[in-house]
Each structure stands twice: as structure tokens, then as C-alpha cells.
Amino acid sequence: MIQVIPTTPYDDQKMGTAGLRKKSKVVMQEHYFENFLQSIFNTIHPEGKTFVVGGDGRFYNDIAVQKLIKMAAANGVKKLIVGQNGFLSTPASSNIILKRHTDGGFVLSASHNPGGENGDFGIKFATETGGQCSGQVSEQIYANSKNIREFKIFDAPNIDLSHLGSQKLGDMEIEVIDTVNDYVELMQKIFDFDALKKLFAKGFTMRFDAMNAVTGPYAIRIFEEILGAAKGSVLNATPKPDFGGLHPDPNLVYAKELVNIMYSDDAPDFGAANDGDGDRNMILGKKFFVTPSDSLAILTDNYNLIPAYKDGIFGVAKSMATSTAVARVAQEKKIGYYEVPTGWKYFVNLMDSNRITFCGEESFGTGSSHIREKDGIWAVLFWLSIIAATGKSVEQITREHWKKYGRSYYLRFDFDGIPTDVANKLMSDLEAKLPPLNGQKLGSYEVVKAEKFVYNDPVDHSSTSNGLRILFADGSRIVYRLSGTSSSGATLRVYIEKFSRDNLDSDPRQMVDELLKIAAELAEIEKRTGKTKADVTT
Ligand code: VG1
Ligand code: CO
């Protein structure tokens, strides 16, 4: 029943910031998915092991999950724990990996990238930590993918994943589990659900935009069925293969429907959105937006309001590009503080070694050591808990935070679809320009440090460079990076932060204007890319 099929290698199966991410049509090429999966198996030796399998329901999820099951059986896997119909959010999957002490897992998702036949597909591979595999492991997988000559697959009809319970394929057990139950249980352990029920019983209103992606069923169960939010509080709650045409990236640009509701005169009290695989979140109040960097700082400042954290937290970490707002909270609370490269996998060692409890990224990601991935619904429940405990609005909570700590005006400018060689040259030429800038003035800003960012992991002592940064005397910063999640061409991300201690109520775009001009000129963005402005600003 086990077939050994000859194959020829593809040369582009290199994981980026979060797994392998490609155009669906690339993944649909003959044996493309099989080659990549077999390369993982050839790297990790799956014989006798147990893995969790799920996905965000996007186009090709159903086909890929069947291939995965049949290949796992042929490669000697002992057991797969599969989300019903092949679904699991990224945080739910990380939870099962930890809870059931498995050897790792697979999430079939391109996360916040659009889906559908003309969209993107992806595969995230997690180890027994519940977090995505390290850069070193992904390098080995990539190396193996370039030499692959055959893959193994079980010759069998498709497995029925619609019913809960166990079945066998050859010697391998397949356990189909409810996608939502374990995750809900975990949230109930962390937060005070009774306090949240009381909040809704008093008439508190919210909208949660699931963007036709994986979180719909989780959000309906938690917010509407358990906590008592009004029916209809969850928008776009049915996962669709093409996300109903939405780009499931929860920001002010792509979560349009929610943004329109929250900026209308009869806006509900609270708004939130999640991304395709449920690990990102956006938080909104009535006509008010919380930057993800501020959100991380505010959650950290309020840890004592949450049952799971009230006895204290270890420390906090952010990706380097994320604003410094949380650094000021860490200093005030006298807790450990770390800055890592972009990508959740860099937080895993810090969590495993009890160095940090909370972590976050500017790209709408926040989370804690309850799992090893960022967690969209967790962040929403945390915000709701702060509101329930303080009786304050999202806007009040945020403004009081700025008053106490100052405000980091922060915006990210994305320049999309740049030819890869142009983008790489832009970055290397820019890097060469940095050392002489130290101590110089750029416009009205004085440079205190201009450098390539290098992270030395305190646990495994690996060293990773990720992006270029210019730090200014007043606490402002410019950061440049190339995206590691785009499925074609290159995206240049320019992150600008302007810190102000007491100017708390200005327009962010205006506040960063001079720094943006400095950043664009220094990198010669227009000259090299022809772009006079960013394609997306978040
Ligand atoms: C982007 C974000 C990064 C995030 C990553 C995965 O990476 O900037 O902060 O961790 O996506 O998010 P990049 O390399 O394109 O900047 V998701 O929701 O895929 O898991
Ligand atoms: Co995601």
C-alpha cells in the first residue's frame, strides 16, 4: 500500500519568516507539496511520532491535508491529531501540541496573505515546543528539498475528516478532534469568564471580524455563545476557501467593514479583527485605533488584572521593528526585556526558559507563554478583561497609558512588488552607508546609532541578523527590513517611530513625516524602485 514515487526537486522551497509561503498555483504544481513535506520528514525522522494537523481552511487546505495524512502514514508516523475537516487556528494547534505532548505539528496556512486559486498557500511546521521550527532546521529542510528524488505516500481513498473520533490508515492512528473545545478551555483557565459575562450582561457591545477565515467558529463560541455578546457580534464568521475575496490581514486598510462600523456614529463599544489563521489581532474602540505596539505595552502594564498573570510575569519581548512603548513599561515594572528579530519563532526560547511571559510584534501580533504562537482571540479577551475590570473605554485606557509613559507615534510603510535584486541591492548599499552616520545629524534628528541589527539568542547562542536600524537621540527610530512572507517579488518595510513625552494628541502621519522623508532619501527608494509613496501604510 506504500508507494515510492520518483520526483524532481524544486529549488525554491525555502521557509521565510513563518513557514513556506507561495502562490497557490506554485504549490499546485506536480509533487510540489509532496516534495516539501517529504523534505521535512527526511529532516526530522517522523517514525513513531505524533503530530497535530490543521489549517485555516483556505483553497487547497482540503487537498493538502489528505496528501499530508497519506504521506505521514507512509513515513511511519504513529499518530496524527487532526482538526475536524482539516481546520485548526495557529494558536489552537500550538495549544494541542503542548497539551497532548506531541512531537510537533503542521498548519496549512499562508496566514494574513490572501487565499484562493490566485492567492497564496503556505505550510507552517512546528516542533514539540509548539512553536515554529528554528532557522537551522528550516535550512536543513531546504537543503534536503534540493536533493529530493522520491517521496512516500499511502495508496488509499481520502480520509473522512468530518466525524470526531479515531480511525486507522495502515498502522497510523488518525484522531479527528473538535477544533474549538481545547482552545476554549485554555482561555477559560487564563481569563475570568464570569467577569466578562457580566460586562456583556450590562449591555457592552462589540464586533469581531473573522474575515471569513478560521476564527469564525472560535469567536462565535466564545463571544456570542459563552460570554453572551449579542448575536451578530461576529462578522464574516464562516470560513471560506477564498475568504470571500477579503485579504485576511487585520489592519485599518484590509478590515474595511469593521473599520467603517467602528468609525460610524453608532459604533459599538469595542471592535477587533483576526487574520487568516487566527494569530493576529487588531483592537479598535469607538472611532479609535490602538497600534499593536501600544497594545503590547498596555497589556503588559495591566497583567495584574488577569487571573493567570496576577502573581507576576517573567519579562517581555518585542520584535526589533516594534515600537519601544513596551520597553518603558518593562523598565517601570522592573521586568526583563528582550528585542528579537521579526518572527514569532524567536520568542520561543525566551518563553521556554522562563525569561518572558508576554511578547508582541508591530504586525498585529500579541501573545503569551500559554502557547508558542501569537494569539488573536487571547489578545481580544485580554482587552475585554481590562475594560471589565476598570470600566474604562479603549480610548481612555490608551490615553491614560500615553499620559503615564509618553507616546510612540508609529507607522509602517510597505513598498510592495519590488524586483528581488533591486531590493537586495537597496539594502546592501544602505547598510554600507550606515556606519559614518553615527553622531551625525539627519534633518533635525541626531543619530546615536546606525547599524545592522544582530540578535544573539541567550539560550541557544545562535546569531541572526534582521534589518537595519537608525536610532536617534530623542528616542525616535527608523527601521528597514525586507519581508519574509511575500509569495513573489520583494516587499521593503520601513518602520518609523517618533517618541513624544508630552505631545500626545497629534496626527501620527504628520508626526513621522520628517523621519519618513529622511528614511526615503537615505535608502533612495524613489530612485531605485520608482515608488514615490508606500503601497500600504499600517
Ligand atoms: C510578517 C510580519 C511578522 C510576522 C510574520 C508572520 O513577516 O512582519 O511580524 O511574524 O509576518 O505573521 P514579514 O517577514 O513579512 O515582515 V503570520 O500572521 O504569518 O503568522
Ligand atoms: Co497569521
General description of the model:
- This protein starts with a strand and ends with a strand.
- It is 33% helix and 26% strand.
- With 538 residues, the protein is an alpha/beta fold.
- It contains 18 helices and 25 strands.
- The chain has a seven-stranded mixed β-sheet, sandwiched between helices.
- The longest helix is centred in the C-terminal third of the chain and has 15 residues.
- The structure holds alpha-D-glucose-1-phosphate-6-vanadate and cobalt (II) ion.
- The site of alpha-D-glucose-1-phosphate-6-vanadate has 18 residues, from loops.
- Alpha-D-glucose-1-phosphate-6-vanadate (VG1) binds next to loops.
Blueprint (SSEs and pairs):
Elements: E1 2-6, E2 20-23, H1 24-27, H2 32-44, E3 50-55, H3 61-74, E4 79-83, H4 90-99, E5 104-108, E6 120-127, H5 135-145, E7 150-154, E8 165-169, E9 172-177, H6 181-190, H7 193-201, E10 206-209, H8 216-226, E11 234-235, H9 256-262, E12 270-274, E13 281-285, E14 288-290, H10 292-301, E15 315-319, H11 325-333, E16 336-340, H12 345-352, E17 358-361, E18 365-368, H13 376-390, H14 394-405, E19 407-418, H15 420-433, E20 441-442, E21 445-456, E22 463-472, E23 477-482, E24 490-500, H16 508-511, H17 513-523, H18 525-529, E25 536-537
Parallel strand pairs: 3-4, 3-5, 4-9, 10-11, 10-12, 15-16, 15-17
Antiparallel strand pairs: 1-7, 2-6, 5-6, 8-9, 12-13, 13-14, 17-18, 19-24, 19-25, 20-21, 21-22, 22-23, 23-24
The structure holds alpha-D-glucose-1-phosphate-6-vanadate and cobalt (II) ion.
